[in-house]
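Bump. Still looking for mannose-1-phosphate guanylyltransferase structure tokens.
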Amino acid sequence: MLLQPVILSGGSGTRLWPLSREAYPKQFLPLTGEHTMLQETVRRLDGLEREHPRHGAGLVDPIVVCNEAHRFLVAEQFRAMERRAAAIVLEPEGRNTAPALTLAARIATAEGADPVLLVMPADHTIADEPGFRAAVSDAFALASDGAVVTFGIVPGKPETGYGYIRRGQPYHGDGLEGAAYRLEAFVEKPDAATAESYLASGDYLWNSGIFVLRASRWLALIERFRPDIAEAVTRACAAVSDDGDFQRVDPALFAACPSDSIDYAVMERLTAEGESVPAVVLPLDVGWSDVGAWSALWEVRARDAEGNVCDGDTFVHEAADNLLIAQHRMLAAIGVNDLIVVETPDAVLVADKAHAQDVKAVTESLRRAQRNEYRHHQRVHRPWGAYESIDQGARYQVKRLTVKPGESLSLQMHHHRAEHWIVVSGTARVTCGEETFLLTENQSTYIPVGTRHRLENPGTIPLELIEVQSGSYLGEDDIVRYEDRYNRDASDC
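Sorry for the wait, here they are.
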């Protein structure tokens, strides 16, 4: 029996704005350590086969389901770890966790296998990783015997921001090391008084969103409870195509799939049904957090003697219990308590920790106004490297481009702008019209409006280049691509 991790990486992380943006959400950020949250999710199972040889044998590479716009971020983060994914499955449009898991289950069983799936969000943190692996070992044993297993987080406070699980009678399975219980019901987020009563009773656990079950079991349950989702995903998967590191499904057919969560689509109906399929919850007390708000990040990060979390160039005086993050400038906090202050090159957030959930009001306003700060950071990542806007005004924009060794931009043309390129370091191979030539440090060239051109880095060190754009329209969508090694279209800037 194989254990197949499935990592769901579709979240947008808007409550951690301005560090998290739509195009670069929190799962791709190193919020709690040197590795990003996605990388920590992958690495969390390291040691499972050694520590639990009976239940850890057969651990295979993960399947990642992600938004198509994030595909290069996922691939790059796996390469940075020198790991590989069994598949990176692209969702043309977000349809919530039930269709995403159905996609993964279809991919996992495509060649006749029926692994146990360990379904994990990409943006959670767990402090006690050996404890988590022990729980996975127990869940694997239960799921191998046909149970549908979820983890319930042992609550440490009367939290109103999480859904809850009500546990039932003890459940006895072969080889269990920890406690297991019948999953009696899923409960919506409570008010404060109800949360207090849940904590006092001892029968309620936070809903972790982590599930363990056989792939065939999930496919049978989704076909029973939500045949519309099962049919739509099956049709979309009928012609899965490979695109480099990625697997694509039919975008029009997947767009027709209803949106629903694993909880609503299957788990709540399963617990209401009774005993036909055992639904089991394992209590988990391993320092779990979904890092769903700035206040949650403050709770899981190391703090100084006054309770401050300080990241970057910061200074504090007579200040306590603050979260202070400085990315671009020096940040000083004097005589303030319980604040969140997050400084990035293009935006600053100041909020009371008690109002951490209200950050969504900012992101919703930015989205309605179609402000760039909602979607992108000042430094925008591309599969070939990154660019950063340095200055802009009427009819001009200045950018800093970094092209990774061996990478290249597409062969392209702009209708409304010309470009001047100045090499700061490294070597550039430039195609301009019918001519191709090399530029080195302190050399420059000019790309006229309407001219086909390409920028490449043939060297072994990053190419740093200043680009000055001038013209009547400078938007990223003013691009016609003729050739692109990353298979992007004009809308995929």
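The chain has 14 helices and 30 strands.

Edit: fixed formatting.
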